[in-house]
């Protein structure tokens, strides 16, 4: 049906990003196709080392799921998005497709090195989240394609992760966000690590240099500080109503360190409540 | 598609009664509730998905009815603030807001009540922190929230004692 309507039609999932965009006249699709009732896209499962989340799973359902208990960084993100009402409607697939530079899911999915499954008339393809998010509000989706699934490897047992969106109030978009997922050997030696900053430029900010810097080392506050500086070098947070660039850089660093320490504690098996932080 | 306004048939259950209307696809649920059905207890505050005054329950979950098209709720079951009172008796949440001065001007109150209803349905004994988190999507410019929190705590207690 989307194909038949042409490039100017848009799918409508939960509408929590798209409807505000339409009210602001930032987009003028000729037609909206309500996909929220497609029955088979609300699933979440964790089998054979792979986590699969249907594109229409809502933030609310993901946040309250067993999956979020098993992989706490997912709950940090899902339960921190906007407020309960928005989480009832908004979907993970809609969030990544909108590619708003402040949206939480695109940043979080960089930490988990997720693949985005895009289904079109001719079949489906898996696109790495790093290639999927091309620019602010711009994705690798081509005409008539729909995100149907988000897929990533189940983090190993000796790993932990944390994510924080820092915002003025629950319904606001974050002014800055940061996520860390890592696995540790004994004595806090970092085996694998994945870092991201969100709302810090047109796309989520990652740095292979910062990750390589930490890999194989015993993690200390000093090392994490240095990694934060490398990561910040790659960021370019825009000055806007949520704060100046300097303010955002300071907050990015502060919440990055907070999630890094939280990830280390969780990797050590501690149960720590996560979620958003407010001004 | 032509620019001429087309209408679609939508049927939504509100507080147990079914309402079938021919509406423009762009009609928001809050407009359906207020203008098509005439239930004006649900308020339009910011119209930007921020303030929560328009909160209603759709199929068991709290949603902002200003950020949903009526067609998206087609076939759904909605509860609005008018659905709280039963047989001329205020709902325990309404009573608690009244007794604990959980409102001043009252504009945000319908949304506060519906968000509280959703919270207590899912978590009958919420902590203060959980109440604050659940009501994070509902803004009040009068009360400073303290009495709202007290009201929800009192309502939780009354409803537990049944």
Question: What report would you give on this structure?
Answer:
The complex is a heterodimer of chains A (279) and B (162). Chain A is of the alpha+beta class and 279 residues long. Chain A folds into 2 domains: 2-153, Uridine Diphospho-n-acetylenolpyruvylglucosamine Reductase, domain 3, CATH 3.30.465.10; 159-278, Enolase-like, domain 1, CATH 3.30.390. Helix content of chain A is 35%, strand content 26%. Chain A has a 5-stranded antiparallel β-sheet with strand order 3-4-9-5-6. Chain A has a 4-stranded mixed β-sheet with strand order 12-11-10-13, sandwiched between helices. In chain A, strands 1-2 form a two-stranded parallel sheet. In chain A, a hairpin with a 2-residue loop joins strand 7 (133-135) and strand 8. In chain A, helix 10 packs antiparallel against helix 11 and helix 11 packs across helix 12. The longest helix of chain A has 23 residues, at 245-267. Chain A is globular, with a radius of gyration of 18 Å. The N and C termini of chain A lie far apart (44 Å). Chain B has 162 residues and is an alpha+beta fold. Chain B has 2 domains: 8-83, Beta-grasp domain (Ubiquitin-like (UB roll), Roll); 92-161, DNA polymerase, domain 1 (Orthogonal Bundle), CATH 1.10.150. Helices cover 33% and strands 15% of the residues of chain B. Chain B is built from 5 helices and 5 strands. A 5-stranded mixed β-sheet of chain B has the order 2-1-5-3-4, with helices on both faces. In chain B, helix 2 crosses helix 5 (146-161). At the A-B interface, helix 2, strand 2 and helix 6 of A face strand 4 and helix 3 of B.
Indicate the topology.
The complex is a heterodimer of chains A (279) and B (162).
Chain A: H1 2-5, E1 9-12, H2 18-23, E2 31-34, E3 44-47, E4 50-54, H3 59-63, H4 66-70, H5 72-80, H6 84-89, H7 92-98, H8 104-111, E5 115-120, E6 123-128, H9 129-132, E7 133-135, E8 138-139, E9 146-153, E10 159-167, E11 176-185, E12 189-198, H10 208-214, H11 221-233, H12 245-267, E13 277-278
Parallel strand pairs in A: 1-2, 10-13
Antiparallel strand pairs in A: 3-4, 4-9, 5-6, 5-9, 7-8, 10-11, 11-12
Chain B: E1 8-14, E2 17-23, H1 29-36, E3 55-58, E4 61-64, E5 77-79, H2 92-99, H3 109-122, H4 128-134, H5 146-161
Parallel strand pairs in B: 1-5
Antiparallel strand pairs in B: 1-2, 3-4, 3-5
Helix pairs in contact in B: 2-5
């Amino acid at each position: 049906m989307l194909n038949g309507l042409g490039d100017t039609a848009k799918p409508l999932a939960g509408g929590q990003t798209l409807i505000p965009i339409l009210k602001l006249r930032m987009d003028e699709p000729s037609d909206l196709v309500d996909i929220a009732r497609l029955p088979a896209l609300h699933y979440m499962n964790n089998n054979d080392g792979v986590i699969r989340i249907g594109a229409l799973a809502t933030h609310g359902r993901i946040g309250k799921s067993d999956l979020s208990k098993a992989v706490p960084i997912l709950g940090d993100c899902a339960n921190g998005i906007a407020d309960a009402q928005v989480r009832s409607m908004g979907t993970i697939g809609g969030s990544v497709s909108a590619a708003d530079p402040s949206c939480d899911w695109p940043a979080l999915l960089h930490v988990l090195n997720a693949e985005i499954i895009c289904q079109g008339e001719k079949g489906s393809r898996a696109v790495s989240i790093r290639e999927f998010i091309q620019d602010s509000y711009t994705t690798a989706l081509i005409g008539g394609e729909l995100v149907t699934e988000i897929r990533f490897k189940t983090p190993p047992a000796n790993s932990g992760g944390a994510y924080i969106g820092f915002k003025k109030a629950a319904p606001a978009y974050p002014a800055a966000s940061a996520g860390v997922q890592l696995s540790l050997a004994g004595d806090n030696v970092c085996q694998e690590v994945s870092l991201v900053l969100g709302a810090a430029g047109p796309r989520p900010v990652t740095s292979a240099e910062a990750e390589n810097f930490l890999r194989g080392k015993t993690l200390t506050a000093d090392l994490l500080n240095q990694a934060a500086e490398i990561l910040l070098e790659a960021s370019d947070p825009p000055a806007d109503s949520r704060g100046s660039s300097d303010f955002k850089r300071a907050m990015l660093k502060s919440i990055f360190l907070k999630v890094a320490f939280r990830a280390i504690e969780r990797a050590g098996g501690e149960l720590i409540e996560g979620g958003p932080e407010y001004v | 598609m032509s620019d001429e306004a087309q209408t679609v048939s939508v049927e939504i259950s509100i507080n147990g009664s079914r309402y079938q209307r021919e509406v423009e696809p762009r009609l928001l649920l809050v407009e359906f509730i207020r203008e098509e059905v005439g239930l004006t207890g649900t308020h339009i505050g910011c119209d930007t998905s921020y303030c929560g005054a328009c909160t209603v329950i759709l199929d068991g979950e709290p949603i902002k009815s200003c950020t949903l098209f009526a067609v998206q709720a087609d076939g759904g079951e909605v509860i609005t603030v008018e659905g709280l009172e039963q047989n001329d008796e205020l709902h325990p949440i309404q009573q608690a807001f009244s007794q604990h001065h959980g409102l001043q001007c009252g504009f945000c109150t319908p949304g506060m009540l519906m968000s509280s209803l959703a919270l207590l349905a899912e978590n009958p004994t919420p902590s203060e922190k959980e109440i604050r988190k659940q009501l994070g999507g509902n803004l009040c410019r009068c009360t400073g929230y303290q009495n709202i929190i007290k009201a929800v705590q009192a309502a939780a207690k009354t409803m537990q004692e049944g």
